[in-house]
Design goal:
By secondary structure, the chain is mainly alpha-helical. The chain has 25 helices and no strands. Helix 6 (102-121) packs parallel to helix 8 (152-168), helix 11 (219-233) runs antiparallel to helix 12 (239-252) and helix 14 (276-292) runs parallel beside helix 16 (316-332). The chain is elongated. Residues 26-32, 83-91, 455-473 and 530-536 have low confidence and may be disordered.
């Protein structure tokens, strides 16, 4: 309709211009006819005025009809109508628009922008801008009839925003006013059946408890939190978030009796869980609990006993997790506590070093022993002669001597004991080069005996002769045959002694000479290049 009106206006202007041109032509061509010109001019003027009034009336009528149709909605929207912004519709929505969720959609979009800004801009520039926003967040976290969030999407985004605020901006002054409402909003979704909202609420509560200095939970609130933790520790899908919340409670040092019961379950998960993430979280939580949480020395010893007893767990991943935790305990425990537990830790680690089938576990046990020796040597001062280290060195010397060697079983046990002692002495010399000089008079005689008389089984343990040449293998076979002959001779001599058979002194001397000749031949063969001299 507006286009038609514009076209009509243009046609009217064209017509007026045309009439003016014709009038000017009539004036130039009829200069002598003054009377006719006046008459014509008067007639044309009256006609133009009447035509102009009628045209204005018609134009006003068309405009009125157009506006009426537009208000009734009978016309298609134009470009101007499409991009028109009505302030009344934006600032004062109708009840129908409220019921349709227009406010929820706008709030969800705004909270999403806030999350994006926090992730992109960082937290250094945001605290000053977040002060007024916290009040709006508190309104959205309130009851639904007071403007609170209703949709799951908006609730999930609010939980994420609260987690970031408590973790990075816990010093905001506005949090002191609204922390009660925000905490209630988080606690409400811990009972939710929706897995996504449940995980986000646990994460938010963990940040609230650990970082917000304005939140001091009461005894009832602490017991409620621990009930959620114990409930989800027994569920595979909820163990990670329960451990995260329990870690925050331990870091906050909320003294609750339920915490000690929950830590027993965490210790079991540390050893038996097949999920590496859960095992790592359990190890971190157990270390924080033993180092920072208030407890007596007896309870600390009981937890350390539990870990050392599980060094022999059947699965290697469980043993590795416990060994890694024991290593951290040795490094972070204070010296007086380690000095009271060093014997238990030492014996348990030596058993792992000697009997474990997994090479990785044996290597980890060796590293923990080195750490223990270093700590004990440092506790002894400049002389490295602490009472605890002296006791361990004496124990090593006794192991190097071996045990009784009456029958075959006792000999094998004695060999294993000497082998374990040799390994532990090697680790001690490797990590404490300065300290071992003070204990050379105790250890050197026994080590010298081991080098003079080779222990059977040492070759198989160390794997030295895995890839030797043919000559070396042949020399080894000859040595084994000679050793078997010597063992057979020894057994025959023992039988003769038991049966009390008398042998002449010449036969005994001859037997000794024969053994000496065999020993000399073997030594000369070992000293020859390309022979068995590569073995050590």
């Amino acid at each position: 309709a507006e286009g038609e009106e514009e076209e009509e206006d243009e046609e009217e202007e064209k017509q007026q211009k045309k009439e003016k041109r014709e009038a000017s032509g009539v004036k130039r061509g009829n200069k002598g006819k003054r009377t006719q010109r006046k008459r014509k001019r008067g007639a044309d003027g009256d006609g133009d005025e009447d035509a102009g009034d009628e045209e204005r009336k018609a134009k006003a009528e068309r405009r009125r009809r157009y506006e009426a149709k537009r208000l009734r909605g009978e016309l298609k929207p134009t470009k101007a109508d499409t991009f028109e912004i009505r302030p009344t519709a934006r600032l004062d929505p109708t009840p129908e628009a409220k019921r349709a969720g227009g406010g929820e959609l706008a709030a969800s979009f705004a909270v999403g922008l806030l999350l994006h800004g926090i992730s992109k801009m960082g937290v250094k520039r945001l605290p000053n801008m977040m002060e007024p926003i916290v009040e709006r967040i508190a309104v959205l976290c309130g009851p639904a009839d007071e403007g609170g969030a209703r949709s799951a999407q908006l609730q999930g985004r609010l939980l994420e925003v609260l987690t970031s605020v408590f973790r990075h901006m816990s010093a905001l002054k506005s949090l002191a006013t609204h922390v009660g409402r925000l905490a209630g909003f988080l606690f409400k979704f811990m009972r939710s059946g929706k897995e996504e909202l449940l995980a986000k609420s646990f994460k938010g509560v963990a940040s609230l408890v650990r970082h917000c200095r304005f939140f001091n939970p009461s005894q009832a609130q602490g017991e409620l939190l621990m009930s959620f933790v114990i409930q989800h520790l027994s569920v595979n899908n909820g163990q990670a978030m329960a451990i995260r919340l329990l870690k925050s409670i331990v870091a906050k040092r909320l003294v609750l009796k339920e915490v000690y019961d929950a830590m027993d379950t965490v210790g079991t998960l540390l050893v038996r869980s097949r999920d590496p993430v859960v095992r790592r979280q359990c190890a971190e939580l157990t270390l924080s609990f033993l180092v920072d949480y208030p407890m007596g020395e007896g309870r600390v010893r009981s937890h350390v006993h539990f870990l050392l007893n599980n060094l022999g767990y059947q699965r290697s991943d469980g043993r590795k997790a416990v060994l890694e935790l024991v290593h951290q305990i040795v490094g972070k425990f204070p010296d007086p506590l380690i000095l009271g537990l060093h014997q238990l830790i030492f014996l348990a680690l030596v058993l792992r070093l000697a009997n474990d089938d997994d090479n990785t576990c044996r290597g980890m046990a060796a590293e923990v022993l080195k750490s223990l020796f270093t700590k004990l040597a440092r506790a002894g001062g400049a002389s490295f002669k602490s009472t605890e280290l002296k006791a361990l060195v004496q124990c090593m010397a006794n192991w190097l001597k071996g045990g009784p060697s009456g029958n075959e079983d006792e000999r094998q046990k004695s060999y294993a004991l000497r082998l374990a002692g040799a390994q532990v002495v090697g680790l001690f010399a490797e990590c404490c080069e300065s300290a071992i000089e003070a204990y050379i008079p105790v250890l050197l005689p026994e080590v010298h005996k081991l080098t003079v008389k080779k222990l059977p089984g040492l070759k198989q343990r160390d794997g030295i002769d895995a890839e030797e040449g043919k000559e070396g293998k042949k020399a080894d076979e000859d040595d084994d045959e000679e050793e078997e002959e010597e063992d057979g001779d020894d057994q025959e001599a023992e039988k003769k002694e038991k049966n009390r058979t008398k042998t002449s002194q010449e036969n005994r001397l001859e037997e000794r000479r024969r053994r000496r000749r065999r020993r000399s031949r073997r030594q000369s063969r070992e000293e020859e290049p390309g022979g068995g001299g590569a073995r050590s």
